[in-house]
Amino acid sequence: MKETxxxxxDVFKIIFGYGIEIVLFAGGLTFFGYLAALVxxxxxxxxxxxxxYKTFIPIIIKASTILILFGLVxxxxxxEKALTPDKRSAKQEGEK
Length: 96
What we know:
This protein is mainly alpha-helical. It has helices spanning about 1-40, 40-80, 85-95. The protein starts with a helix and ends with a helix.
């Protein structure tokens, strides 16, 4: 059973990794869209900014939400506890 969960976790980890990379890249492209709109100006710039804001960004937000779900499921299936301290690391922090 653990082997099956590990395989599923590995697949989800790949989907999560590539997906987040694509979403971050797409989010960065919005900067260049707004920059191009600033250079172009006028009615065309208004249409570009409106399209980016009303069409493109909601897609990025929905995709990132789904990918975060994949990341959480991956952590759950792998048995990882990312935001909880270990006894070992808590002792090391106390010793410093």
